[in-house]
Amino acid sequence: MFGYLIRRLFIAIPTLFVIITLAFFMMRAAPGSPFDLERPMPAAIKERIEASYHLDKPIYVQYGYYLKDLVRGDLGPSMKYKDKDVADLIREGLPISATIGGSAMLLALILGGLLGSVAAIRQNSGVDYAVMGFSTTGISIPTFVTGPILALVFGVYLHWLPSGGLDRGRMTFTHLLLPVLTLALPQIAIIARLTRASMIEVLRSNFIRTAHAKGLSEHTVLFGHAMRAAVLPLVSYAGPATAALLTGTLVVEQIFALPGIGRQFIIGALQRDYTVVMGVVILYAALIILFNLLADILYGLLDPKVRYK
Amino acid sequence: MSAMTGNNAPLEAQMKKALEVEGRSLWQDARGRLFRNKAAVASMILLGTIVFLAIFGPMFWVHDYDTVYKDRVALPPSLENWHFLGTDIQGRDLFVRLLMGLRVSLAVGLVATAVSLVIGVLWGATAGYIGGRLDEVMMRIVDVLYAMPFIFFVIILMVIFRDATAGKPALNILLIFVAIGAVEWLTMARIVRGQTITLKGREFIEAAEAAGVMPLKIVVRHIVPNVLGPVVVYVTLTIPAVILAESFLSFIGLGVQEPLTSLGKLINDGAKDMETLPWTLFVPGITMMVTLFCFNFIGDGLRDAIDPKDR
Is the peptide bond before A142 cis (omega within 30 degrees of 0)? Predict the structure, then answer.
């Protein structure tokens, strides 16, 4: 297990390196520079500013500088916000994105797992059909349709909840409820389906029949035996799902005008704020790698049939 | 043999009859199962209608998608002047814009999926068939790309080429095809590789090898046709994913450019004016939902039909 972990981490480093390199050269290939303003500044001043960010050097030299800073953990200064480092921007934005993404994931796991299990236990009943119907609908509606519609109905028509933004920069339950719901909905649907399918398979298997035959109570069979086996596919789904939710916050932040890192990325890409774009890409890539690794480890701990070499 | 013909006439007739009753192939079986699935059939009919309307509707509709009626701005749906889904904030007929948007979204879905299909199938089949060191390297590349926050790279790609494609809608859409297709092939490659490895040990591949068929030809002629089942299922699930990706790009303003439109762009426009013109949000939103619904039902139906294990 330990050897496996070490090996996975060793694979992660070149993976990150490739992603960083790709993102760096792709971003620099975009026409324009962060210092192209609507009101052009004198060429001499622009040159001096660019020189202070090493932008006057050949691109491979810039790449060298960037990697050197990165190894020391320095993501560099933002090229658009004069007084802020990329780390500052991430520190401001990440809590918002993480709160939305984390809450959505939690909600999706709990609700999706619950709905899926109920549907499986009462297979082919009205409840089952209702859950499956809801789930197919949930998968088919993109977040950028549900988001505006939820904002319209609950924010504009009913005035129950704010339709976007934060409460003077602070996160509150009412301001985050709609974004979290929007983001969680498709994941609830997918997780409900997964849980139902795996639960049905588990309930048909021999060890459940044995458990029933031993005379265990329905409750013990379901929660002690079936659940544990049925969550396995969920665990392997959780890694990619977390990644999807993390990048999904990008959409939700855009819809609800939330100042998370997804929004900073889009603004950064449009304004050629190279360092901000790089910082966010690196952060997301690292998180995706991390969550996939965590999912694999958890899978190994839960499934006695899996042994890592 | 010919001398005995007279005696064996009934037997021969029987054999002939037996030969005429063709065995049903796997695909025929699958087709039968698919057509018994009511949700899938209904979805195919509905989707067929949508596709037909998207292709031919804009040609014959009384309004053009880019005609601006300055005196008919933001009309709610009504039968007057044939604006039965209303007009948008600039005074363009929403129905024909919806069909145009569907056309673009469906085209992106199909073409980008085709791009991902070609790359993914060839990549996966080659890695799986040749195996060894090459397989290791090729799949490691897939693993690395998997860790990429894909939507971020598509956004960067769109930013790079946006200026170059400004004012050239065909080029702009082509870029969307390539950008999305180039990142959607990863899962396809994994599925195909897994299938190929199980196929590799089968007798008919061995027979082809023994007959001296070139590796490339074995991959294209024998491996690829046999992995089509799971691939077809995955394709029907990729198309909606691609449509979503394109719509999201258009939603943040990086996708198709005015006066062309797509479902995502229509939804974005509608979301901006939703407080005063709610129908401009609901019409494309519901259309998108129905379209994705159809794809999902057809995908489910196909999976049940081709892979009967789950039923």
Answer: no
